[in-house]
Amino acid sequence: MSDQEVLLDVRDLVMHFPIHRGVFQTVVGYVHAVDGISFEIRRGETLGLVGESGCGKSTTGRAILQLYKPTAGRVIFQGQNLVNLRGEKLRRMRRQMQMIFQDPYASLNPRMSVEQIVGEPLQIHNILKGSDVRDRVKELLELVRLNPSYIDRYPHEFSGGQRQRIGVARALALQPELIICDEPISALDVSVQAQVVNLLEDLQKDMKLTYLFIAHDLSMVRHISDRVAVMYLGIMAELAERDELYSNPLHPYTIALLSAVPIPSPVIEAKRKRIILKGDVPSPVNPPSGCRFHTRCPLAEAICSEKRPVWREVRPDHFVACHLVQAESFDKTRSSMASREV
Amino acid sequence: MATLSTPTFDNSLLKDILPERKITWLERVLGPENYRIVKGLLKTPASIVGFILIGTFILIAVFAPAIAPPVTSDPYKIPRDGFSSKPQGIGTEWSKNVPDIPFWYTPLTGKTEWVHLMGTAQGQYDIFYGIIWGTRTAFRTGLMVVISTFIIGIIIGSISAFYGGLVDNIIMRIVDVFMTMPFIMMALIMAAVLTPVLGRSLLPSILALISFGWMGYARIIRGDILSIKERDYTLAARVVGVRDSRILFRHILPNAIFPTLVLASLAIGDVVLSFAALSFLGIGTEIGYADWGQVLSFARNWITSLNDYWYIVVWPGFTLVLFVMGWNLVGDALRDVLDPRMRGKS
Questions:
Q1: Which member of A158, A291, B232, B272 lies 3.0 to 4.6 Å from A106 by CB, making a disulfide possible if both were Cys?
Q2: In the A/B pair of chains, how many CB contacts fall below 8 A?
Q3: Which residue of chain A is at minimal alpha-carbon distance from B256?
Q4: Is the ipTM of this complex over 0.90?
Q5: Over the range B299-319, which residues count as b (16 or more CB within 10 Å of their CB) and which as e?
Q6: Can you tell me the distance from the alpha carbon of B66 to that of B105, in angstroms, rounded to the nearest whole number?
Q7: What is the pLDDT of residues B51-85, one digit of tens each?
C-alpha cells in the first residue's frame, strides 16, 4: 500500500472561524474547527475519516475543496497547492475533485430538473453541448442505477436513496480523481445505506476513484476504507490501515471509540466491556491545553495537559498523537484500557 | 455484507395499486415549485376575486379610447364642459365641447345625447373620463414604481448578501437610514423639489416614490439570499466550479426571490395609493390630468357640502379602493401559497 502514489497531501491544515460580536463586529474569538492536521491520500484508496459530531471532519473535507479558505497549512493535490489557487485556476482544478453531500434533501436545487443538475458541470466546463449533455446525463443515471427516463423529473419526486444517487451522478459527471464523501449515508435508511455504499465501491473499481470517506458509523467505515483516520476536536488522533486500527488501536480515544461499536453476537455482546468517557467534548472555542483529549482521557498524566503530543509514525504506516504511546509502555497503555474482546 | 440486488426499473406490477400521477405540460414547463404556486393562486376564492378585479382594470385601461373617446390630441387631459366652478350632478347633459359619443352608449341607454355619467368636478372636468383614463395612469405609475424599486432592491440586497462583511454592513446601515425617514413626507418633499426641475408630469412623483420605496425589497432579499447561500446545493454548485454570477442567478435568486415578489405584488396597491395622495396634495401632474388623485383633489373645496356633491369623492375613491383591494387579495394569496407551513394544505 505505502508505495502507492500520493494523490492528496494535507499538511498542517488549520481552519479557524472568527466569532464576531457587537456593533462593530469585532472578532472576540475563534472556533478552532481544525487545528493542524496532516495526512495523505493515495491514488485509488479509500481513506475513512471518523470522529464524533463537531470534531471537524466535514470542515476538513470542505477546507480541502477550498469551500473555506484554510487559515494555514497546505493542501497539495497532484503537485499543486490548492490554498494558493484563485479564480479560474481553482475552478479548473475543481474538475478533479468532487463532493457527495450528507443530506440528499438539501443538496439538490429544488428548482432544477435532474438533467439540469447533473448536466450543469458538463456545460459550465464546456465539456459537452446541446443534446450531447442529455445523452451523457442519461449514461450517468444508468451508471448510478437510476432509470434514464427520470431525466426530466425534479428532486422532490425521488426518495432519499435516489436523490443521493443523483448527487453521486453529479459528482461523477466531471470524471474526477478524488471524491470527498461527506457522510453520504448517514441521512439514509439502513437498507438504502448498503445500496449506496455498494454503488460507491463498484464505481471506485470501475473508474479508479479515490475516496475520502467522512462518517461516524465505525462499522461502515471499516467496511469501505483501506485506511482509517480518527479525529477528535480538530486534531488527528490516529491514522492506520483499517485492520491495524481496528485490531490494534493505540490512542486511548480510538480504543474508547471502538469499544462502543456493538458486536452482532449476543454472547460476545453480553461480555463486552464498554469504556465510557467522562464528561462532554470541550468547546472548540476554548480547546484544552496540551493534548486535546486529556480532559476526558482515563490515562492522562501531567504532561498531557502541558504539551501538545507530536503526530508521529510509531509503526510503519501507523500514526498516533499521544504522549503515552511510548515504545516501552505500548502494551501497558492497551492493557490498562481494557481492550475489547472480539 | 451481503450483496443487494440492484433495483430494477420494471414497476409494471405496481401499476394497478399505484395510479401514476399525470404530469401536465404546464407543470413540465414551469417546474414543480412554480406550478404549485400557479395552481395555488388559481384555487383560493380571494385571489380569484383579486384577479377578476385586476383583469377588469386591465380591460378598462386597454379599451379606454373606446369607453371614453378623447376630445383633444392629448387623451390624458380630462375634457371640460365649460369653466364654471360649481360641480354638476350625474346625468347632466354635455353642453360645450361635446366629445364623440362612444359606440356602446346609444345601444345601451337609447339616448343620443352624451351626458356626464358620473357628474363633473369643480371646473367642469368630467369625472367618468378621469376615472377611465386614470386607470392607465394608475397602472403606469404602479408598475413603473414597483418594478423599479423591485429591481433596485434586488440588486442592492444581492450585492449586500453575496459579498457580506464590510460591504454588507455599510449597505444595510444606508438602508436603515432610509427606513427611519417617514415615507410619505420624504416623497412629498422630493416630488415638490423635483417638480420645478422636471416640469409638471408623472415623473417627479414616480422618482420620489422610487427613491424611498426600495429598502424593503433590499432587506428581504438579503435575508433570503443569506440563508440560501449556505444551503448544500449552493455549496455543491461551487464544488462543481460554477461561477459566482451563475450561482447567484441560477441557484440562489430563483430560490430566494419569492418572498420579495409577494412584497412587490402587495405594494402595487400601496404605491398607487401614495401616488394618489401626492396628487391630492397638488404635487406632480398638471391640473386636469387624468389620474384618480387629481379627480379626488377637485373635491377639496366642496368638502363642506359633500351632501350634494358626494359623487366627486365617491367615484374616484371607490375605484381606488377596488384597485388596491385587487392587488392586495392577489398578494395575500401569493403569500399563503409560498408560506412553507401551508405546504400541501391547499
A1: B232
A2: 85
A3: A111
A4: no
A5: beebeeeeeebbbbbebbbeb
A6: 11
A7: 999 999 999 999 988 888 888 888 888 888 888 88
